[in-house]
Amino acid sequence: MDHLWTPWRYAYVTGADQKSGCIFCDAPKESDQEARIVHRGAHCYVILNTYPYTNGHVMVVPYAHLDELQNLPVDAAHEMMVLTQRMERWAADANFVSVIGETRVLPETLDVTWDRIRKAFGIGGL
Ligand SMILES: [Zn+2]
After folding, report:
1. pLDDT, tens digit, for every residue of 43-92?
2. By percentage, how much of the chain surpasses pLDDT 90?
3. Which of 70, 83, 98, 119 is most solvent-facing, going by the fewest CB within 10 Å?
4. Which fold has domain 19-120?
5. d(CA 52, CA 58)
């Protein structure tokens, strides 16, 4: 297996304030900006990864804290996939991913990415 080594991330990852708590239970209680939530759906929300491997690295997270994906109710699973498709489209439109699937790294901060994704969802930004 090949390993992806991104040494430029090391200082950021080791120097950032570590958050404790549960992404399922605690992150949705924070403000959108504090948690870097870009969209809140009925069953799932979309959150920027604080330690992204590349620009636009988001996670679609159900509000329900379950131990297995197969336990997720159908409505929540459907919304999760719809939001995942929407984020895939957004990443392509934002030029984070090319049409041939290569990932591009754009020099922008998490706050800028957060603002851009929220605008794509029609939510006011900063
Ligand atoms: Zn939890």
Report:
1. 999 999 888 777 788 999 999 999 999 999 999 999 999 999 999 888 87
2. 44
3. 70
4. HIT family, subunit A (3.30.428)
5. 8
